[in-house]
Amino acid sequence: MTSSKALRWFTSLYMLVLMLLITTGCTENIIVLNPKGPIAEQQRDLMLISTLLCSVVIVPVLILTAIIIWRYRDKKGRKAKYTPNWEHSTKLEAIWWGIPILIILTLAVITVQATYALEPSKPIESDKEPVTIQVTSLDWKWLFQYPDQGIATVNEIKLPKDVPIRFEITADSPMNSFWIPQLGGQMYAMSGMAMTLYLQADELGTYWGSGANYTGKDFAKMYFNVEATTQEEFEQWVNEIKAASPKLTLEGYKQLAEPSASEILSFSAFPEGLFEMTVTKYASSHNHGLSWKDIQKIQIEE
């Protein structure tokens, strides 16, 4: 009996220590809690505030549960007060209903405000012009087109620090989800649609990006690096690609779109309107009846 009791105490202590290590561990190792941009910072703060508010209810309930189980356990010589006719307490009812209601209302207000503030297509306030990157999800790779710079890459993004990035996202494959955890939340890539996502990197460095939707055999290989550089380094990188990389032709794109994994590639040019053609070919097949100009007009009106 003594060894069994000791084992229970050891197990309880172990679980408590494990929970403390998990909840108080260094957030540097959890990339969604280590933001490197303004959007990710606001999303991190929303997660932490929501967790703390929920803990106001969850932690006392867990503690009281342990106390009640221990105090009212079946044992000889128990001194806990026995009140079989007790059935109601207005004070207690007010506490265990009032506090959760206040927390839910607070969470509702915070969530609504954050939802509007973090609207993905809302431009980031900046005195710098945004850089546009057109993202196309393929099987099983990512194609990134820089329409203003006239270059394209596969499974690699470079962007200047402290400059808003306007991602235009679509798919020429099954639906996927474009995600750079340290810069912001994920955005679905869907055929026949052009989704808009604004992000920004505030620090120099290399960040991990990935597809966040299961899309088949080589889904696990759909990851890419995002390197935030200085403006000068970004322009130098663009010039190097223009000088040394081949052009992406329409036939080359059709081969690239075939289901297969890919290493990092770069192209000094790509067919004009390639992204728009990818969007509208599926829009037509879905009977959306929208041209690329129609899509842009709707986005502006929204």
From TrEMBL:
Enzyme class: oxidoreductase
Annotated localization: Cell membrane
Role of this protein: Catalyzes quinol oxidation with the concomitant reduction of oxygen to water. Subunit II transfers the electrons from a quinol to the binuclear center of the catalytic subunit I.
Source organism (scientific name): Paenibacillus eucommiae
Domain of life: Bacteria
EC number: 1.10.3.-
Topology in membrane: Multi-pass membrane protein
Family label: Belongs to the cytochrome c oxidase subunit 2 family.
Gene Ontology molecular function terms on file: oxidoreductase activity
Protein name as catalogued: Quinol oxidase subunit 2
Reactions mediated catalytically: 2 a quinol + O2 = 2 a quinone + 2 H2O
Regions that span the bilayer: 12-34, 46-73, 94-118
Keywords, alphabetical: Cell membrane, Electron transport, Lipoprotein, Membrane, Oxidoreductase, Palmitate, Respiratory chain, Signal, Transmembrane, Transmembrane helix, Transport
Domain Cytochrome oxidase subunit II copper A binding: 128-240
Ranges for domain Cytochrome oxidase subunit II transmembrane region profile: 24-122
